[in-house]
Amino acid sequence: MAHRQDQQRRASIHDVASRAGVSAATVSKVMAGVTTVKPENAQRVLDAIEQLGYRVDPLASDMRRAKRRIIGAIMPEFESEFFGQMVTQLESLAEQRGYTLVAASSRESEARETEILARMHDWRVAGVVLAPVRNEHGPAAAFMKANGMTGVLIDRVLSDDAFDTVSADSAAASAEVAAQLIGKGHRHILVVGLGEQAATVRARLDGFRTTALHLAPDVRIDVVLAETDVEPLRAQLRDYFAKGERPTAVYSLFLKGTLVALSEFRRRGWHCPNDISLVGFDDAEWMQVTWPAIAAVVQPVRQIAGHAMEALFARIEGEEGPPRARLEPCRVLMRESVGSPGSGPHSGGGNRQ
Amino acid sequence: MAHRQDQQRRASIHDVASRAGVSAATVSKVMAGVTTVKPENAQRVLDAIEQLGYRVDPLASDMRRAKRRIIGAIMPEFESEFFGQMVTQLESLAEQRGYTLVAASSRESEARETEILARMHDWRVAGVVLAPVRNEHGPAAAFMKANGMTGVLIDRVLSDDAFDTVSADSAAASAEVAAQLIGKGHRHILVVGLGEQAATVRARLDGFRTTALHLAPDVRIDVVLAETDVEPLRAQLRDYFAKGERPTAVYSLFLKGTLVALSEFRRRGWHCPNDISLVGFDDAEWMQVTWPAIAAVVQPVRQIAGHAMEALFARIEGEEGPPRARLEPCRVLMRESVGSPGSGPHSGGGNRQ
DNA sequence: CAACTGCGAAAAATCGATTTACTCATTTCT
DNA sequence: AGAAATGAGTAAATCGATTTTTCGCAGTTG
Description:
alpha/beta, DNA-binding, Rossmann fold, homodimer, 434 Repressor (Amino-terminal Domain), elongated
């Protein structure tokens, strides 16, 4: 079974050619499915390929073309379920079209984002799926524009004048959260978020506020927004509660905020939903096994990934026209962490079911 | 600025050469830092590079060498914190050495694992970091061996006769968990795991059992192991409890098992640690914000990634010698989900704190 | 003064596939 | 029958770098 030479040197198209007694060009044609090859020769080529275990070298194959069969993906991080699922999806979709996905993490840094982009440009990727750290106005998008790269922006973006964008419909989802909380009687709600990521956070905040005020003009909405990091947010939140503020519900605009809110509740000995209600943007597997299960807005990862790749490949294949901004609807899962204010026995044990 | 031509065609080494009035070979030498270039010429080359914004095409650059500056990484999934952090680390380490990391998810399938490996072989990657779905004896490792690939196996492996391995010291960590549970007085413990991933699960189980029996020969250890999937495990666990079994502590050998255990506790209205104690292998961010915080074994992701890459690059650079099996120590975080049996009010509402 | 040493740089080969241009045979058409 | 079209295949150019070989020329040496 030809183990020996496998370890030494891989068969090249020339090895196949000489073995089949034809030229390399003919081998290439057979592989490409060109019909102008004598069936007899084609068969000999196929046999040679089989015997030598020949496989095309994608790197050599891509050398000549301007756009290579590589898609770059840049995510702010890999540690969360959301981006993990996103990369998995994107990889699978790229693969389906015969492309290789090269994913990189910007680790929430715009500087790194641009560096990675430059590296991907060096690789002459056919296209890039960029989930920017902040929004569509960062240096990364500018770099892509300046260098004529093909790309799609996802997640923390609204719309752009150069690239297609795909993201969750944060505003609509937040509006629904607002409607539900108001419906349950909440009139003092705290919204927690990480501020300058702007794009989505603003959409979520506005969507929530507008609908809440519309349905209950007397509602009081407090907002605690931190600049960039989680720890400052924790500190601000602690201060907020230390002042004696006592909202009946908290809406966190992103996953880590939900974690922070939960840990602050714990510190103070508050329980959901009796002492306070909680809804978070972004779902996670653990949220349904804790007690209580945490209500969450579920982002449509598959849809976002699917439409992003669809748009990207359309552009790669030369589609013209103005960029399109796409919003995918979210699902709001109201779990046990949300109740009506003052309905449960305050402080103390929750004896449910 | 030079925006126009950037959009059109990237500068190649020949463009730089002609602009500097030298040959392409000289440009290559300047970039490689070869000293046998007249300073005057070197400067002109540098200027030309600057003016044209020239950057080496990594693909063309790698064409000639047998091993390309690409490292492949294959993980069972991207959705968990553990593998997310792992990929982030590996990427960062590869980058430091001027390599590009191409990560792929086998989605817990051995067939896919081998396919991906074949693709990476086509890419002529310099090396592969493989976190196999089951263990070191799967088809993927065999493929690597048969094709003379360079690689390191991590996570769900113990040791191998062909490749270096790096994983968490599951046995030692499990022994410590055993010691702590026994120390707190537990004498009826349930161990939950996903069976045929073998390598690590077996190590964890054995490590736990050996130490537990050593410290308390009268301890009763039940084991619920499912074959491959999570749902069967849930069913088995449900059956187990339905039979009236009432261990005082549960040790889950992997993250999803912890989730499943928690959700079963919820179904039955049991609370940790009053009704039952829980420790899980693998830590996650949410575990410290739930009430109670879940005790967990923390795997040393950075160490595993670091030593894996160290070993890999040593092999890439030609290091000989028998493969080494490395075990990295874990930390055991005993949080509130672990207590002493019978110390809290059984059944019903947990009015804790 | 011929032969030798070496430096610096250019020319050419190489990596592996694709693609263009071109060569012979056959057919087919007028 | 002679011209044009088609078929089947090959040699060579190309992609963008790296590496090996070769070469010119200046300065030494015998």
